TrEMBL record:
InterPro entries: Crt10 (IPR014839), WD40/YVTN_repeat-like_dom_sf (IPR015943), WD40_repeat_dom_sf (IPR036322). Residues 392-422 have a biased composition (Polar residues). Residues 352-362, 661-673 have a biased composition (Acidic residues). Coiled coil: none annotated. Residues 339-438, 644-681 are annotated as: Disordered. This is WD40 repeat-like protein.
Amino acid sequence: MENRISCVRTGVQPGLRRSHDANFPPVIKSWRCELTALSHTYNLYFVACNETIYIFEPSFPCQDLGFIENGYALHPPQSAPNLIPHIDPDDPHSITRLHVDYLGTDEVVIVTCDDGDVVVYRVPDIFRAMEKRRTSLPDNQMEADLDDEVRVFRHINVGSSAWGIAVHREARLMAISANTHNITVLAFALSDPSDDSSSEIDRGFPHDRKRDQDIVLRGTTNIPALSFDNTNSHGRWLVSSSINGNTHIWDLHNPRQPARVITLGVCVSVGDPKVSPQICQCSNRTSVPHAAWAALFIDPRACHRVSTLREACGSGYRATGPVRIEPCFWDITETEHRYTSTRIGPLPAPSDDFDANSENYDEIPLSELTDSDETGSLESDQMSIDSAEEPAQTSSDAENAIIQQPQGEPQSPLSNNPTPGSSLLIPYSDSSESEEDEDNLTFVITDATGQAALQVFYPPAPDPDPSSDPPKYPYCSIYTSQHFLDQSKARLPRTESSDISGGPLVIITKEEIYLFQRPFQPQGDYSDPVMFMRNPLFPITTPATGSRGPIPPYHRHCYATQIPELGIFIVATPAGRVGIFSLTRAKHEFTEKVLFGFRLSAILPCKGDDGRKRADGAKNVIADVWGKRLVGIAVGPVQGMLDEEGGGGGAAATAAHGISDDEDDGEEQEEGGEGGKERVDAKVGPRRWRLIMQFHDHTVYSYELGKQLGSGVSGLGDLVV
């Protein structure tokens, strides 16, 4: 199967070039789940820096964000003084997740905080406040604070550090998970209390929808991610991912207990493959290797039709068939040697002749190695931190720090007695996962007042070699409530149900990605295959040894999103890699039953991902950005293809831009009208999307994603703005 998804890098913005004071930009905290988002209605990009939301307007086509300090800013208020933090005692109100979605016809931005606060703003209010400020402030205004102009739409506290966010547009539902182990579902009123009629969505809901109400779902451990089934217009089904590896499917019509609990993993301690191990003996067990970090309900119409299951699953589906493992697994992990890897960076200090978008950008790093040169590389790599301005005449050791990769315990290269006003390095940790964080060497450069500034991150030593483990085997444990079983039996004579999705469920754990075929049909639990990939973002790069290269211990699949219009989902890791996966469907050659699949389309960043043909043919060379931790991936339509204000997004946009049961990816589809406030040439067909990767040092990589249309690709030149 040819790659149906185009992915082109449009820009790279080094963090050192994005701040007026390169040594002291706003701090982005580590150990968060998602700190960035793009509006689908306006050309707005949001990034959370500690307790502040910065808002930028990316420029087309390279999505340049400009100086950090020139961004507009919002400071989410606190619901009460002296709230108790969970992982960040220094900044209790620091933001843990940022999310943009549609609630009814309103596009909203939602932020969760470590003290349990949840703050919601309307994106149109933010845009109008920016327009007002733009006309009233002088050009040299460094930071435009919007707090006085933007009213908070909703503000609650959920009792402890809040993490997961999910929104259902049509049903006007918002779900928030917290470290209380509970999920709070805010059900906003759908009709006036005086209206005697009931809407279709009201039917079956625990209470009428004529007034706002809250529903509490009780879990058993921390819940980092939530997702609604958007193919169900009632908002009935919610999926939650738990640190203990459980994936819960909740029926909001019967919220007292989960309808289903699916537990998937790969462990050395597996006895019965239908029972999850009680004790994990994996060598990396202290890093919670079987935690579930996300789950996504998939619209079946988003899955590309292909002719064979090998096309559906990629090279992991061998010529002789899939690797079948009891009781129901198909291991479709890629075995072909498609990728090699190299390390780039850290990026050099700013200079007049430096151009991150130049053709030679990939060749400018201070240190670079391939897998064959890994031995001893960490000891020789260096990071230089220099101010863009002339350094002050104080302590040269402190002002021009050279931080070298340590051997064993880190030794600060700075003076033990820094002079007043000079910078100094102090150990920094804001993680509750102490077992993992002990291996990570992170420092914060502070000024003389003690205020945190630039974070400097040492890549830690890799986890113990997994090859030293005994063999690992997958397990699939499934619990189904009696109420759900009774409902399923009642549905058996029916071929369709408006309350039940016919699509699969993608479950994402720390190291694996699973596709569960039919989560609402328990009768097929162990007869339908569960397809999975092991560590797909770290493929084999040295065939002779089977090496995947060093995998940092802070690697986990904690960033995930999907773009149904393109038929893809995206998974990323703080280790700096992003995977683009295509969703597929094909008929089984013997049973004629439709099976859903997925295949790896691209890993980012890659050398040659700027679309240029390179003499070395390095299209599949993974370019690891050394020394930088990824803090967010944001996706949204490119400028000129934005949703219409006040109702152009969500299902409407999906229908307008090319998802249907009769999709044919080889033909152009009719454009669904103007997106946002800029005209789109009708020949473009399915919309182009932008992906922005944000690193903790404010380095930004931007990409443009789209469908391959026939033999051509709609791209930057096809847009008329």
